[in-house]
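Worked example (supplementary).
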Amino acid sequence: MIGGAPVFDAIANRFYDLMEQDPAYAELRAMHAEDLEPMRRSLPRFLAGWAGGPRDWFEANPGKCMMSLHKDFPIDRMTAEQWAEAMARAIAEVAPEPANIAQAMTDVLTRMARGMAR
Ligand code: HEM
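After joint prediction of all chains, the assembly is encoded as:
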């Protein structure tokens, strides 16, 4: 409904561009590996499956969940907020249609990110 793999690729690439270029996300950037290429490929496939599309990421990563993926990272309120803000900006800039579904996706991802702060 939201446009398939090209839309998730565009959102993930914009998200990691912002993370790399905007100093507002410095702490979030520092938590990630130097090479963001694997995440540019992985996150859109995760999001596509999570949103009800093809589940190839989940099939390639059996048993992995949001908690196990992130358990080694010291996610606090600041880095969770940086994630949520960069993702909201990325979705807004890609501006997929329908806009109400894009807004719902932003809202859910914001709540998820905030819920991961320890
Ligand atoms: C709350 C703030 C968050 C922080 C600080 C954070 C941070 C990270 C970091 C540091 C990694 C490892 C990246 C690397 O190896 O370079 C990672 C992996 C990952 N994150 Fe997050 N994350 C957050 C929220 C989320 C959310 C809300 C989602 C999805 C909706 C998500 C999806 C993923 C996925 C799918 C991976 C692993 C991909 C793979 O290994 O195939 N993250 N995250």
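Two points are worth noting when inspecting this output. The first helix runs from residue 5 to 21. The chain has a mean pLDDT of 97.
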